[in-house]
Design a protein that fits this description.
Blueprint lengths: L7 H10 L45 E5 L5 H11 L4 E5 L5 H13 L6 E5 L3 H5 L12 H4 L5 H6 L1 E2 L2 E2 L2 E13 H6 L8 H13 L13 H11 L4 E3 L6 E4 L4 H15 L11 H8 L5 E5 L2 H7 L11 E5 L12 E9 L6 H10 L4 H9 L8 H4 L2 H4 L11 H12 L9 H17 L4 H18 L3 E2 L1
Parallel strand pairs: 1-2, 1-3, 8-12
Antiparallel strand pairs: 3-11, 4-5, 6-9, 6-10, 6-11, 7-8
Protein name: ABC transporter substrate-binding protein
InterPro entries: Bact_solute-bd_prot1, SBP
Keywords: Signal
Length: 464
């Protein structure tokens, strides 16, 4: 190739620009609840078992090292180690999201220092896979756990036919809304995007707040909404490793940008960057009637102070509005997995750890009851206790049963690109330009296509 595939410097920069992982990443993934206490960060670890955060109870067994940042990782690792008769896990938290990715990228460049197993956001898997940093674990027990996860979850951790991670948590999209605002303006939850615009216009005409928010810093959300309309941003098959399909200016992508740009220009939705104090203040104060977000949002919002005090009991959730209700499409924002690195001393043993972590009932139950994960393991997703849960944030609504579980089960997965963060950053730039009026939707999509396709060619790809 013309350059070392996604050169170390470029990837390190990309990783450093990303905000971390399951607490929502404005550019990329999402999932871990922001209100959970984070485990103490430890800069050590790598592929040495001499620097564990946890205590290993069965010292006569082989040890697999693991990096991860789930807030309940200590519990998850302890549960695994108690139950395992083959292997023990040595866990280190080297930082969340981009902090971990920087260290992993350094280890890739050095050829040493990576753990055997690493927690990674699903949309980052192709970035590391293309550097030969991750192991295809399909040969190491996939068939025995395949039925534990849905088709969409497996697709999100795949590159071509190969499996590069074990899915743990996800983010099926839905529409959170203020019941008090909907009641005041006598509107029902819209089931289509056309109804959403009509309701937004009605609320504005009657002097109400913005109906939602079109933010430049949530590119992964914008991508998901374009996919819902029918877009397929990337096609990539490692069997043709020098070729990538990039289609960011198709009609579906333009339609979604035009839709949200129109709502913003008419003042029907705001344009405040999300995950900021200003945005959260607006959510708390009723500045927005709806919040289009993922299943991890209730935990994130609770941790940010939403739904408390005067806000208590004012929120509900409804399915994501559809473009064509006769052909509904469910989409996802965020999620993480456990992957095996190519520096693993024993890939088969490491895969056993990846498959087994966060897969037992106690760990899964702790994860969803404490709003740390939205589980993808079907043993939890289909657990009556999970489905029937009356969610406090939604005033006792059975949100999982009514909204999130059906959305997760219907999700078909996507193909992520090997340079996802570059794409997210480029999307942010074009959406910002669309919001400020310097480009229209078609121009924004065309410029995005030119930018990302040009970057891919610089990396040595043939772009289709």
């Amino acid at each position: 190739m013309k350059k070392t595939r996604l050169s170390t410097a470029a990837l390190l920069l990309a990783a450093a620009t990303a905000l971390a992982g399951c607490a929502p990443d404005p550019g990329g993934g999402g999932g871990t609840d922001a209100n959970a206490t984070k485990a103490a960060t430890n800069d050590g670890g790598g592929n040495s078992a001499s620097n564990c955060t946890n205590t290993i109870p069965k010292k006569d067994l082989p040890v697999v090292t693991m990096w991860g940042w789930y807030p309940n990782t200590q519990l998850v690792v302890d549960n695994f180690n108690k139950q395992s008769s083959d292997v023990q896990v040595c866990w280190t938290n080297v930082g969340q999201g981009s902090d971990e990715y920087e260290k992993f990228q350094t280890a890739i460049a050095a050829g040493t220092g990576a753990p055997d197993v690493i927690m990674i956001e699903m949309d980052r898997i192709p970035t590391f896979q293309i550097q030969n940093a991750l192991v295809d674990i399909k040969q190491y027990g996939y068939d025995s756990v395949k039925a534990d996860y849905g088709e969409g979850a497996w697709k999100d951790v795949s590159v071509g036919d190969a499996i590069y991670g074990v899915p743990v948590d996800g983010g099926p999209l839905a529409m959170i809304y203020r019941k008090d605002i909907f009641d005041k303006y006598k509107i029902k939850p819209p089931t289509t995007w056309a109804e959403y615009e009509e309701a937004a216009q009605k609320v504005k005409d009657e002097g109400g707040p913005a109906f939602g928010d079109f933010a430049a810093n949530v590119s992964a959300l914008t991508m998901a909404l374009q996919i819902q309309k029918g877009a397929k941003p990337f096609t990539y098959d490692p069997a043709q490793k020098d070729t990538i399909g990039i289609k960011l200016n198709d009609q579906a992508s333009k339609d979604v940008l035009e839709y949200w740009g129109r709502l913003a220009s008419k003042g029907l939705v705001g344009t405040q960057d999300q995950f900021t104090p200003e945005y959260i203040s607006g959510v708390i104060n009723g500045k927005y009637a709806t919040y289009i977000s993922a299943a991890w949002a209730p935990g994130y919002l609770t941790g940010a102070g939403v739904g408390k005090g005067e806000d208590t009991g004012k929120f509900a959730v409804a399915p994501l509005p559809q473009w064509d209700p006769a052909n509904p499409v469910q989409v996802n924002w965020g999620g993480s997995a456990f992957s095996v690195t190519t520096q693993a001393k024993n890939p088969e043993l490491a895969a056993k750890v990846a498959y087994g972590l966060y897969a037992d009932k106690e760990s899964l139950t702790d994860g969803w009851t404490n709003q740390i994960i939205f589980p993808l393991n079907l043993k939890a997703l289909n657990d009556p206790a999970f489905e029937e849960l009356k969610v406090e944030f939604f005033d006792g609504q059975q949100a999982n049963k009514e909204v999130y579980v059906p959305a997760a089960n219907a999700y078909q997965g996507v193909t992520y690109s090997p340079f996802g963060q570059y794409y997210f950053d480029a999307m942010t730039k074009q959406v910002s330009a669309l919001i400020d009026g310097s480009v229209n939707a078609a121009q924004a999509a065309d410029k995005l296509q030119e930018d990302v396709a040009g970057y891919a060619k610089e990396q040595g790809f043939t772009v289709q």
